[in-house]
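User: Hi! I'm working on a homework problem where we have to compare a predicted structure to a textbook description. Could you give me the structure for the chain below?
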Amino acid sequence: MKINAERFLADLHALREFGASGVGKGVVRPAYTQADVAARDWLAGRFEDAGLQVAMDGMGNLFGLAEGPSLLMGSHSDSQPEGGWLDGALGVVAALEVARASRESGGPAISVVSFQDEEGRFGVTTGSAVWSGHLSQVDADVLTDHGGVTLADARAAMGGMVTGPVDPARFTGFIEMHIEQGPTLDTSGERIGVVSDIVGIRDMKVTFEGQQNHAGTTPMHLRKDAFQAVTAFNALLEERFRNVVTPATVWTIGHLSLHPNASSIVPGKAVFSMQWRDGDGERLARMEAIIRDTAQEVAEARGMALSYGPLLGLEPVRMDAGLRGALEAGAEAVAPG
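Assistant: Happy to help. Predicted structure tokens:
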């Protein structure tokens, strides 16, 4: 099998143009936006040119299918706001090039996928979760983004591109190339890493509701400031996690919405995202209990109402030993040491 580096790089840079947002700002290609749909339409054309059968399920997961049983390769092509141009895209275009090179050399059958909403506009790896049966389409459709748009309404943007479901049983395995996104390989000088486990993820929205009031006339001791509740919660959380987490555990408040979000008004409502990740399912559950207990304590102390959105997430998964061994052997062959 001979990889065509020039063709691979040309496609990678072409995909980069969809949602390009200027120097240093990556791409803006969230799921179901105009840029995302245009990118999927372009990818469908490249799949067809490669001799693959184009298929798209109701979620918008885009497949380039080889005939008969095949190894599935790919990633996602949607992005975070100002996401890195290689995040996900590298895996999709690399899979396409492997599929083409294998077909040209008479090698094994390779199919390609670009999963939809892997970057969590509506949930956690939503497209692959629905496709694999982890999440029903009915349950997924009621999920909303930070602007209140439902997934059911958003996925209507795929329109006539949808062809129908793609059965996971037709594939013999799945391999994904991905940039590391962390500092470990870079700082160690290693060129390739082979993933051993996928960490579990938990994600939910938390809402503190206090009392909206005038910022100039409401005494500090009488305020029910929802933002101050968030800061108190965050400070307590770090201390209470200390004896539970490991150096590999991470947690993030990545989105915060204040109401009415004005400089001269004490915010009466704060809605924020709470996400935590770890390779141990029991630790994830212990962290959830700490999060809920701490939020309840803060709400009661400050006279706040407290509510939660649905708890979303994935369980930790250990990678297939056979595929992992093959990847390790290949990595050692092309990047020894």
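For your comparison, note the following. The chain has a mean pLDDT of 95. DSSP finds ten helices and 15 strands in the chain. Good luck with the assignment!
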